[in-house]
Amino acid sequence: MADDVPEPTKAESAAIRSIKEDDVHKICSGQVILTLAVAVKELVENAIDAKAKNIEVKLRDKGLEGLEICDDGCGVKPNDLESMTAKYHTSKIEKFQDLQSVETFGFRGEALSSLCALTEMSIITRHRDCNEAIKIVLDHKGKIISRSCHTRAQGTTVLLTNLFVTLPVRRRDFERNIKKEFAKMCHILQAYCLVSKGIRIRCTNQTSNGASSLVMMTQGREDVLSNIYAIFGRPKLGEIIKLESPFKDSKGDVLTQDELISALQTNTGDNVNITKDDLFLLYNTEFALEGYISSCAHGSGRSSKDRQFFYVNSRPCDLKNISKAVNDCYHSFNNSQYPFVYLNIIICRQEVDVNLTPDKRQIMLINEKLLLILLKRALHLTFDQIPATYKVQNVSISDIQTKINNTDLESIDLIPLSTAEKFRNVLSQWKRTGDTAGKAPNVPAKRKGSDEIIARTLKMQKIHKFLNNEDIKLSGQYDYKSDPDTDGEVDKTIPIDRSQLKQESKTFDELVERIDCKSLTPQKSACNFVSLSNSSKNIVNNLVSIDENTDPPAIVELDISDTETKEHSNICSQFFVTLKEIEDNLKADEILKADNENKAKLERLRFKSEITPSQNKSAEDELQKEISKSSFAHMEVIGQFNLGFIICKLDTDLFIIDQHATDEKYNYETLRRTTQLQYQTLAIPQALELTGVNEMILMENLPIFEKNGFKFNINSNASPTKKVSLLGKPFSKNWEFGKEDIDELIFMLQDAPEGTICRPSRINAMFASRACRTSVMIGTHLKKSKMKQLIEHMGEMEQPWNCPHGRPTMRHLINIAMLLNTETNEND
């Protein structure tokens, strides 16, 4: 191990000891500062808590090299510099009870100390009562290394370099996913920009070549709507509307408590369990829902949930239940888009717990159910006032599935499958005779599930029937000689009817032929039961007395094989076999055989899902797990079925492939990968008014936008939201594209790995339509070479399991080895 890497503790300790203070500091700090977004969040919160009116965030290479945050807040007193970066030192609270009334973002005293442990930090600060600023450099323990005088106005500047330098794994992950980390940071910073009234927040990014660009900026206005316009641009009139109060009626009059309960029951359709005490608490506190949301009119929403911001008492947070309620209600009016949401829940601080997670983004509310009911009413009041809109009745997928299962599938299940039955009989005939000639009977058959075939067991009943039947007549070249002491008759030969024996149980014949008559032990199961010929060398019958409690022995005459006859021409052999011994050995042999077959079945049973819509997901998972891309090249084409499906074989498995769906998917992926869409030049360039973050993403990925048919004019000297204008957009016969597709493509590129070809959903839909029209159709006769080509193309696809419209391309039919075993058991 290298000298600079400490050896881990290997010896087991018998005593419980405390961890060293420095190691505790590193471990705990890594749980507080998780990402670039959290680091920026903590420093911006400190600036807001310091009553700053101007905050500037400067990133170097998206934060990869470092960042700097400046504010004009009150600054830090020189006497507090030592404790400023100490663990759990804060000026916000003094005791635990203060948490219920804390109004600042920070209160635990962890952020600066944790940042010191994970990065290289220096701070420049000037308190409002001081004449000069002080610069301090800190080590990873939060201790001051150096102190010097500096020049700056009132406020604080925090400089960070080499974020996560002390955590090598996290640092490498940070470098590898810098685009995603930067996008998350921008989203977090946008949340603070929107809610911060009267505070001017500015964020810039300096690239590695020295060029600086503005990411986002607010003007410091006192209203939220101005911040929304500054960050996201001014929308069209009526696209963003104010959220109505749940305590008012449609005319704006305040409701009484009884009227509100009645109104809530009308909105929810259920009996609302709300007491007057609950409403009294809400009416007499500062509870309010402040917010803006997209209009539910079609076209006013967005294609994703990328612009939804939730707050509790102006603290940005993650509220999953609230978010779900908002989106579900919006979809009841507009089910094709997602809304822009700014929702600030003002509630009594004693009813909120923000001390759940280190980043304080998880919040617990005492009466969340009541809050959801009031929010739903507020949304209904807001959307009901919008003209020319209507509710979309949501239909449950489960209801549709139930109807299908109860009606159509039952009728499908009764359709005669003469072709499948013919195939099955031909396969059985080939197994018996090696020839497929002949015509299979056209017998209607009901579909059988694969579980019915697998569940069939070996037919032991015929063997027991044979062993217990005293009237069975045996004939042929076998001689069965009864013991004279038992029957009172000597050398009485019972004729054997071979044809009847075969009809009774072919399985029994095959099993008896494997019995070793000399040893009669379960361990040997592959020896022959020798049949007598017309040879004159018969074995002399001897009389043997047996115990009365045993079954009558069977004296079996054996003809010596040709090899043995040459050396011993007149050798006779005699042995005794009881029916009980035969039965015991047959049972032991069958148990061993069944165990082996069950093991083989388990190995072959890789595909368990049936060909039914309800099992599409599990079927695709099985195919992805068991079939690799190289497997398609080794598949053998069996033939075409019903001029629409290809039957192919891989090892002992049969598969059915939809010829149209698989060709459509191949053509779709080819179009998606190679097509360069042409653009139509606009007569007047269209101003896009993108956010600063989105402008950066667009300018960094211009080749991808051009591949999708978009042409832009970039003015680097223009102010944010005005740098990019649209010069040309893609066109097709019946398809129109515009700003919505650009927004969707930007959203996809935020998290897309390098080199990924992204396409907006509408362009993908156009490619799917083109691919469908140019693919092999159902009803087209295919030569074997064409079928082989379609199968090989599946190995070249990124995702070959369904077509662009969702129809499955391939399903497993059956395992041939299991089918042959079933045929053997049925013939027996």
Automatic annotation (TrEMBL):
UniProt similarity note: Belongs to the DNA mismatch repair MutL/HexB family.
Cited PANTHER family: DNA MISMATCH REPAIR PROTEIN MLH, PMS, MUTL, MISMATCH REPAIR ENDONUCLEASE PMS2
Pfam families named among the record's database cross-references: DNA_mis_repair (PF01119), HATPase_c_3 (PF13589), MutL_C (PF08676)
Single biological process term from Gene Ontology: mismatch repair
Origin: domain of life: Eukaryota
Domain DNA mismatch repair protein S5 residue range list: 228-384
GO cellular component: MutLalpha complex
Entry protein name: MutL C-terminal dimerisation domain-containing protein
Gene3D superfamilies linked to this entry: 3.30.230.10, Histidine kinase-like ATPase, C-terminal domain, MutL, C-terminal domain, dimerisation subdomain, MutL, C-terminal domain, regulatory subdomain
GO molecular function, one term: ATP hydrolysis activity
Domain MutL C-terminal dimerisation: 637-782
The entry's keywords: DNA damage
